[in-house]
Each structure stands twice: as structure tokens, then as C-alpha cells.
Design goal:
This protein is of the alpha+beta class. The chain has nine helices and 14 strands. The mean pLDDT is about 95.
């Protein structure tokens, strides 16, 4: 019931605070947190109301993307709290601002530093992806099969934030990894393509918890492999960089190409 109660809250808040503003943003409804990093009134109101709804279901602190932009110390709760909610009120805000439908609402429950529950709601595709640790990945209540590798590799490499010369080296390596698939501007939408078997892999440099805590659990529960390119486990509260999610048959091959190109931690 807990999975369903949270899913209902997400749907209802998105219906009230996000969808009425889609393709209807007024002057003053959009701001930039940094150049090219948008936030809208829909992001802020969705996070505010959804935080209240989630805490009513389980009283735990909330680490929201927009609240953390104002108070970075909230990030410490992801690793340090007994339990914490993590919210991305609109993943794909640039798409939302541009009137494009590739955006989702994402929630994760972190317990003792590990993601135990995940929800990704895509209102434009009527798709609610959910996962509970050890119980598989579901869409609208139906369990998803494990994706299998196709005849060739296809996937997305996100290299924008990789420091040079690693960015150039990574792009050169990516050209040898198979068919590149353009990024969709939303981690939630991209991971949905991965768990559906539409693509075989995803690589990200930045691994902010509201982007990857829910999505990494969805991927692992669907039978995919998610880890740092050096093989170390991903934990949503760590400060590492680089995350490779892929069909397990190809993960080692992909990591062997990607890892040597990346900047070394100091």
C-alpha cells in the first residue's frame, strides 16, 4: 500500500501544481539558478506541496532539489539521516520551460544511506515507474522484464560537465561504443528508455541524488548494472562523480572504454 499511497500523492500534486502550468508559464514564472539552469513556479510549488504530502505518509526530512539550492547542507541528510525523502519536482525543467513533454516528477526514499523505494511519474506518457528494493521494477503496477542486449550497443553519454581533457577523450571513446542516442534532457526519461530496453547504456558525470537515487534503483531492480565506472558501488549520499548504467552483458566492456578517459580524483 505504501508504494501506491506515494504514487497517488505524486500524481495528485503533479495534476494540481505542474500540469496546469505546462505551456502556460507567465512572465515572472521562470528564473535561472545559474546560467541555463532553470527553476519555475511549478518546480517550487510541486516540491512544497509534495514535501507535505510525503511527510504525512512517513515523517522524515525532505531533500528537495529546490530547497537544496537555497540550503546546501540538506545534502548531508541523504547519507546521514535514518530516513530521508529525496524529491526532483520537475526533472527536465528546460524541456518544461520550452513546452516539450519530456519531463517527470521523481521521488526516492533513502534509509540509512541506501535507496529503498523509488517513483518516477511521467504524466505525458501516463507512466508511473516504481521500485522497492528486492521486489523488481514496475510500471503502473505491472512488473517489467529484464532488458536484454540487442545486436549492437546504443546509448547516451552525458559529457557536458566532464573537465577537459577528459570530455574530449570521453567523446572520442563514445564514438567507438556503438550507436549514440541523443540525450533527452531528463534523467528520468532517459532511465525509462534504459529499463524498457530501448537503449543499452547511460553514462553521467554529475550524480546529484534527486536525479539518480530513484533512477538507479529502478535500473538495478530491473536487472541492470549501475556502478561508478571504476566498479565501486553507487550510494546516493556520496560525493563521487561518474555513473554507468547498462545491460549487465555489456557493462564491463563499456566501463573499460569509459573509465580510462575520466579525470582522476585528487
Amino acid at each position: 500500500m505504501f508504494i501506491d499511497e506515494v504514487a497517488t500523492a505524486i500524481r495528485e500534486v503533479a495534476a494540481a501544481e505542474v500540469l496546469p502550468r505546462f505551456q502556460a508559464l507567465a512572465e515572472g514564472d521562470v528564473a535561472e539558478k545559474s546560467p541555463g539552469d532553470y527553476v519555475t513556479i511549478a518546480d517550487r510549488e510541486c516540491e512544497r506541496v509534495l514535501s507535505q504530502r510525503l511527510r504525512a505518509l512517513q515523517d522524515a526530512p525532505v531533500v528537495g532539489e529546490e530547497a537544496t539550492a537555497e540550503d546546501a547542507s540538506l545534502l548531508e541528510l541523504v547519507a546521514g539521516a535514518d530516513a530521508a525523502w529525496v524529491i526532483d519536482p520537475i526533472d527536465g525543467t528546460s524541456n518544461f520551460v520550452g513546452g516539450k513533454p519530456d519531463f517527470v516528477v521523481m521521488v526516492a526514499l533513502i534509509e540509512s544511506g541506501e535507496t529503498t523505494h523509488a517513483w518516477v511519474w511521467d504524466p505525458n506518457r501516463d507512466s508511473m515507474l516504481t521500485a522497492r528494493r528486492g521486489e523488481g521494477t514496475h510500471r503502473n503496477g505491472a512488473r517489467l522484464p529484464t532488458p536484454s542486449r540487442g545486436p549492437g550497443l546504443s546509448g547516451t553519454i552525458k559529457s557536458k560537465y566532464v573537465p577537459e581533457p577528459g570530455r574530449t577523450q570521453l567523446r572520442e571513446a563514445a564514438s567507438q561504443l556503438g550507436t549514440p542516442v541523443p540525450a533527452q534532457g531528463s534523467a528520468g526519461v532517459e532511465y525509462a528508455s534504459l529499463v524498457d530496453g530501448t537503449i543499452d547504456y547511460l553514462f553521467y558525470w554529475r550524480t546529484l541524488p534527486w536525479d539518480h537515487a530513484p533512477c538507479a534503483l529502478l535500473a538495478t531492480e530491473a536487472g541492470l548494472t549501475v556502478a561508478r565506472p571504476d566498479g565501486t558501488p553507487y550510494r546516493p549520499g556520496d560525493t563521487g562523480t561518474g555513473l554507468l548504467a547498462a545491460v549487465p552483458q555489456a557493462w564491463d566492456q563499456l566501463a573499460a572504454n569509459i573509465h580510462p578517459t575520466l579525470p582522476k580524483a585528487e
